[in-house]
Specification:
Order of helices and strands: HHEEEHEEEEEEHHEEEEHEEE
Shape: globular
Distance between the termini: 33 Å
Number of domains: 1
Low-confidence stretches: 1-25
Strand content: over 45%
Mean pLDDT: 87
Length: about 280
């Protein structure tokens, strides 16, 4: 997998909070718009390989996310790459309803783009442009993506926004008790979370707590059953995503992501996490 794609894969895959932060957490009030930004340093085996920034704008009814990332350091010598992602949709009490998703990844001066739209709680249109056209022939034991797999799904970027009701936001087990049904334009899979612990986190813009959720990858369709990487991801027991509230309200987003592999650990560590001024 290209390192530029790994930046997004890592950054996307990515007890109650102490004091009055969670005790008084609510959804944004009517007409109130919040602009949150997370800046990640993406590392592999302790060495920085990329940087990623995500800006989330939301009110009590809608959300939009814009992200950008690029390889850095030694990674640029082997696979220089960059990418952007945009997603938007409706913000519900304990869920999201995506409308538009866009991704563009450039590596070695070749760009791949994905445009995806949603309607009636399902994927409506998919426009995938790749540098190397996909073969219409499918490998043996390939699990086809069917119409049923495109209903009630999220795009990968939208899964970074986790709205909770005020009462549920005070329960870390409920915050982490999530199953994200994701379709990335080609592959359908679930990301299942479960609560592990609550840990202190301090970075520029934030000094508080985060819920540590164990993360499991569950392949559904759009993959080859016997593919080694699919099997390794599904069996990986060393993946965590840390969720923290944005701006003291009951909408959470990743503040840290840790993915262990047999070759080393991928990590997305925050250099900034907090509210920012509107562009």
């Amino acid at each position: 997998m290209p390192l530029s794609v790994n930046i997004f894969k890592t950054a996307f895959m990515s007890a109650a909070l102490a004091g009055t932060i969670i005790a008084g957490a609510t959804m944004p009030s009517s007409g109130e718009t919040r602009n949150h930004e997370t800046r990640f340093s993406v590392k592999f085996a302790g060495i920085e390989i990329g940087k990623a920034t995500f800006r989330i704008t939301f009110d009590e009814e809608t959300y939009s996310l814009e992200g950008s990332g690029k390889t850095t350091g030694l990674a640029e010598w082997f696979a220089e790459g960059k990418g952007v992602v945009k997603s938007s949709g409706d913000l519900l009490e304990n869920s999201l309803k995506p409308k538009i998703h866009y991704v563009a990844v450039t590596e070695k001066k070749k760009t791949e783009t994905l445009k995806m739209s949603f309607a009636d709680d399902a994927v409506d249109e998919i426009d995938l442009e790749t540098a190397k056209p996909r073969s219409p022939k499918k490998a043996p034991k390939y699990v086809e993506v069917e119409t049923k797999h495109l209903a009630s799904v999220l795009d990968p970027a939208s899964s970074m926004i986790v709205p909770m009701s005020g009462e549920d936001a005070a329960n870390p087990h409920k915050v982490c008790h999530q199953t994200f049904p994701i379709f990335d334009g080609e592959t359908r899979y679930d990301i299942k979370l479960s609560y592990k612990s609550t840990q202190p986190v301090k970075t520029t813009g934030y000094d508080g707590w985060a819920h540590v959720c164990k993360m499991k990858y569950v392949p559904v369709a759009g993959h080859k059953k016997s593919h080694r990487s699919v099997k390794e991801m599904a069996e990986n027991e060393h993946m965590e995503i840390w969720l923290a509230p944005m701006g003291g309200v009951s909408v959470f987003t990743p503040i840290k992501i840790l993915i262990g592999t047999k070759y080393g650990r991928f990590s997305a560590i925050p250099s900034f996490f907090g509210l920012v001024a509107e562009n």
